[in-house]
Specification:
- There is one protein chain.
- The protein is mostly beta strands.
- The chain has one domain.
- The chain is built from no helices and 13 strands.
- The strands form two sheets. Strands 4, 5, 6, 7, 8, 9, 10, 11, 12 and 13 form a ten-stranded parallel β-sheet that branches. The protein has a three-stranded antiparallel β-sheet with strand order 1-2-3, with no helix packed on it.
- The two termini are 28 Å apart.
- The N terminus is likely disordered.
């Protein structure tokens, strides 16, 4: 999916899900993650090991191994990788690789290049064509 650009020039990752509610009426949910919202970025080519317990968004372009906890968003870009027993977040958008279980309070979106080797626990799961989840 090509990025959309907001009024401030920042790239937006955008997904629109349409489904039917119990009433039979269509429901539209917008899921937007602005790359400007991430205060912690693990850069491409970086390897970080340890525990991240952060109150703001985390963007992974490199490799993180350890424990991740944030009440807000986790973004794993294409080329990024997270290896953790459990990833606890408010929401997650995955375009890279996650090895472990993702527990998201709000939603998880797996983009076409996203790969999860583990589990996903969330009330709303959005999976693009080409994405994969392999439960271990």
């Amino acid at each position: 999916m090509a990025p959309e650009w907001g009024h401030n020039g920042r790239s937006l990752l955008h997904h629109r899900e349409r489904s039917r509610a119990d009433s039979g009426l269509p429901v539209t949910v917008d899921v937007n993650v602005s790359t400007g919202a991430f205060h912690t970025v693990i850069g491409q080519g970086s390897l970080l090991k340890g525990t991240l317990e952060i109150n703001h968004g985390i963007q992974v372009d490199g490799v993180f191994r350890g424990r991740v906890t944030t009440p807000t968003a986790l973004l794993v870009n294409d080329g990024g990788e997270v290896v953790a027993d459990v990833v606890e977040v408010g929401s997650a958008e995955i375009h890279g690789i996650v090895n472990g279980t993702i527990r998201a309070r709000d939603w998880v979106r797996i983009g076409a290049t996203g790969r999860i080797r583990g589990g996903v626990e969330t009330p709303r799961l959005i999976v693009e064509e080409g994405a994969s989840i392999v439960e271990t």
